[in-house]
Amino acid sequence: MKFKSLMVCSLLGSLLIQLLALSDSAAQEKAAAQLRKPEMKDTIKATVYADNTFQLYLNGELVAVDSIRFIPHNVIEVDILPSYPLTIAVLAEDDADPKTGMEYANTNIGDGGSILKFGDGTVTDKSWRALAVSRGPLDGDTKNPRVENIAVPDGWYRAGFDDSKWPQATEYAEDEVGPKQPYIDHEFKGAKFIWSGDVKLDNKVLLRKVLETPPDGKERTDFSNLNNVVPAGGGRRPRR
């Protein structure tokens, strides 16, 4: 009797495995049938400015770098293909001397500031998180300038990173940041300049924002898994 029960359990287990395999295969086929290759109409525009420079990450991937570190200030516009939830991470940096925290041959205390706008309605504001990892000159002391650094957290730019203990970003008026060309030639309506708590003494700042859904409410195809399926319309043509 025990032998028969074992055989029945074994058969049922085997059948369950086959059903799960079929179900998984069917799900993959359904996903492949629904997925297509992305087109430019699926992208949105990302426009970013920082005093002085930045790196932009989306869901853990580096997608844009300001190629000009200091002067002139630079606006970067790139087409991005977002997938939600969308983790946006920006390393923003005022180009200060790493030993003094000052600029222009250690004659001036600079200021920071970063602003961002995406075509899905994403903008920078005080709902972002901001962590200063380098500041100086401490206490604004330009005669004996010192810099304080903290370690950049591992994986700070990735999705799933816990930034709940980071301070919220501080918004700054345009005249507090004093943006240079070509900022005024680009459209940042609705976005705010943000930084950590001290726009003058904080020189390197990590900024983060997680969007569960697109701010504009539009449904968008998720292409993040495109490399793992064959999209409708095909991959490579077979060789003859």
Describe this structure in words.
- It is a single chain.
- With 240 residues, the protein is of the alpha+beta class.
- It has 2 domains: 34 residues; 172 residues, Jelly Rolls (Sandwich), CATH 2.60.120.
- 15% of the residues lie in helices and 26% in strands.
- About 3% of the residues have low confidence.
Main sheet summary: 6 strands, antiparallel
Q: If strands are numbered along the chain, what order do they take across the biggest sheet?
A: 3-2-5-11-7-8
| CATH topology description of the largest domain | Jelly Rolls
Which range does the strand content fall in? 25-35%
Number of domains: 2
| Number of helices in the DSSP assignment | 2
Radius of gyration over C-alpha positions, nearest whole angstrom: 25 Å
Count of β-strands: 11
